[in-house]
Structure formats: structure tokens, C-alpha cells
Amino acid sequence: MKDKKYYSLLCVALIISSTCDAHRHRDFASKHVYKDDMQNAFWGALTVVGAVTGIYAFGRWCGLWGAPSNEVLIERCRNDLSKIDGYQSLIRLAHRMQKQHGNMAYYFDEELLYELAIAKGRSRTINSLIKDIKLTITDLKSNRSAIEKRMLDLSHSEQWHEVKYVYNRMDHLVRKSKEVLFELESFYALLAEHRSYFQLFEVEDSLARDYRREFELLQRYANDQYALAKAMRSSILSKHSGAFALISFVKKLKQAIYSLEQALERSAYNYATRISYARSLLGSLYYIQEMVISDKEYIRSLAEYERAQREKERLRLERERVQTEQRIAAAKEREAYAKEREARARERQNRLKEQEMYEYRMQRQLHW
Predict the structure, then answer these.
(1) Phi then psi dihedrals of residue 174, to 5 deg
(2) How many other CB atoms sit within 10 Å of the CB of residue 126?
């Protein structure tokens, strides 16, 4: 590694020295009107060769292209292993599950899945987590393979006593990466197998937070429908501003119901607790929707909204009609202008012909 570094620095020095020599010879040639350009061409070519060689050597040492240095390989592997630290708590939970039930495709503990979903947190979705883990596995395998190839080269080195320390460091990283990869791949397989569980959990958690106030009102006024409807309307109007707040709420609620139904349909296994809670949540959302759309204020607002939409559509059609008429009028005006120009052009042409005929007749009369 040191030899490569010194070689790259030597090439950089060659760039500087050859560039200075080229400028010096160019100055000499300009002052003494030096006629032989071969020397200048030689120094210019030497500058280009030195620059290309130095940049290539420096980039090769840094690992920008070609075979990266030993330190670069080690640092890459360390970075990949450090990414695993963020998954350790989740991996330990998954390990507990697999230790108890073995093949997760047929046996699973829903309580442990729930613990895993809670531990995952809300900062990232299950899809992004699976994608990140797959990318980490791919990078770790690639870097481990590169280190193993470099270890093979080092094992045949004639300067074994100098590379032994680097070889041992690489060997330690390879053994550690193999252990980590086994755990990480098992964790990835678990998440991928039960992706639908975590997706359902995420939808449920999001809806439970978005409609927390409405669910609280359902429990508080379970035996008083009139008070429930009044409190529900007041809660919705306090959260949604505008002339059609209730209509906006119902539109958003329908989208929430659709997303929950889709998550339920995607369930890969019969997650009894999760599915039961989702269906209960779905029933509450449908109940809230029916309550809102049967409210007199919503019916009145809906009638106004439909009138406003019809008026908006009428104005749109009127604008289109006016624009169409304007385009037709503009087209006719352009057509009339073009015809007028054509008529003027013909008139000028006729006058020129008459002038030519008049001149011709005058010349004939003068000739006779």
C-alpha cells in the first residue's frame, strides 16, 4: 500500500516538473524564435502522459477505479458491519421467534410479531426496512468476496511478514461478516415472509392515530346517539376548516377505509389478533361514516357542494365556449387578412403588367 502511495506521489511530482519544463521550453522558444517544434511537442506529450499516469495511480490507490487498496476494502466492510448495529434489537427478537418455532413459513408467534412491529417504530415503513436490509446484505457479500480475493493474493505474497497484519485483520472481518450475514439473512427472510402483517399493523396504527378523537367519542357517548352526533360534528369542524369540512372529512375517511380493506386482503396468513383488531377498526370507521353522512349538516353541505360543482362546471363550459368563439373569430380574422393581402398582391401584379404593356406600346410607337 505504501509503495502505491509513493508511486502516485511520484507521478504527481512528475506532472508538476514536466509542466514547469514545458512552460520553460515554450518561453525559450518564444523568446529566441525557436523554429524546431519537435522539442515542444515532446514536452507536451510528456506532460499529458505524466498527468494521466498520476491521476490513474492516485485514483487506483483511493479505490476510485480498478482494485481498491487494502485499507479501502477494510473500511468498506467495517461500514457495512456498523449498519447492522441498528438492527440488533430487532434481530434478537426475530432470533427468539425462530428459536421457538423454527420454519417461520408455517409456525409463528403473533405476540412476537407484535413486539417486532412495536420495536421497529414509526420512523420507517416495513418496505423501506426490507429494502435497506437487502441492500446491506448485497454490499456485505460483495465486500466480503473482494476481501477474500485480496486475502488469497496476500497469502502468496513474497513479503508475508509485511502483509501478515493486514491479512489477519481481513480474516477477522470475513469471519465476523459470515456470522452477521447468517443472522441478517434470517431476519430478512422473516420480514419478507410476514411483510403483510407489518403492513396491516402500519395501516392500523396510522388510522388509530388519525381518528383517535373520533374513537374516543364513540366510547364516551356509546349510549347517547344525539350527543355523539353533535360531538362528532363539532370535532370534525374543529379539525377541518372550509365551507365543506364535513365533505372533506368523508372523502378522507373513505380513502382510509379503502386502505385498511386492501391491507386486510393482502394478509398472507391468518393473523387472528391483528385481523380481528383490523375488522373492529373497520367497523368503527364505517359507523363514523354512516353517522356523518346521515347528519343534517352534512346533507345541507352536500347539496351546496353539488350546486357549487354544477356552477363550476357551467362556468368551465362557458369559458370553453367563449374561448372557442374567440379562436374561431381569430381564425376568420386571419383568413380575411390573408385574403386581403392576396388581393393586394394581385392588384400590384396587375398594375405592373399594365405598366409593362404601356411601356412596350410606347417603345413600338417610337420605333415606327
Answers:
(1) -65, -45
(2) 20
CA quadruple 133, 134, 136, 140: dihedral positive or negative?
positive
Q: Could you tell me where the DSSP H helices lie in the chain?
A: 2-31, 38-62, 70-84, 88-101, 110-120, 126-155, 160-193, 195-210, 212-220, 225-239, 245-265, 272-293, 296-367
pLDDT in the model for residue 34: 44
How many other CB atoms are found less than 10 A from the CB of residue 256?
Answer: 20
- The three cell numbers locating residue 122: 414509526
Residue pLDDT, tens place only, 213-234: 999 999 999 888 889 988 988 8
Surface-to-core class of residue 51, CB atoms within 10 Å of its CB (0-12 exposed, 13-18 middle, 19+ buried): middle
How far is Cα 122 from Cα 130, in angstroms, rounded to an integer?
14
Separation of alpha carbons 248 and 251, rounded Å: 5
Alpha carbon distance 364, 19 (integer Å): 85
Q: What are phi and psi of 78, to 5 degrees?
A: -65, -40
* Contacts (Cβ under 8 Å, ≥6 apart) of 368: none
pLDDT at residue 6, as a whole number:
44
38-91 pLDDT tens trace = 555 455 555 545 554 555 444 454 444 557 888 898 898 888 888 877 777 788
User: Among residues 274, 282, 268, 276, which one has the least CA distance to residue 112?
Assistant: 274
In this structure, are residues 117 and 197 in contact, taking their beta carbons and an 8 Å threshold?
A: yes
C-alpha cell at 131: 429494502
Q: Which pLDDT tens digit goes with each residue over 317-366?
A: 999 999 999 999 999 999 999 999 998 999 899 888 888 888 888 888 87
Distance between CA atoms of 113 and 273, rounded to whole angstroms?
11
User: Quick one: cell of 14?
Assistant: 512528475
> Tell me, what DSSP letter sits at residue 87?
G
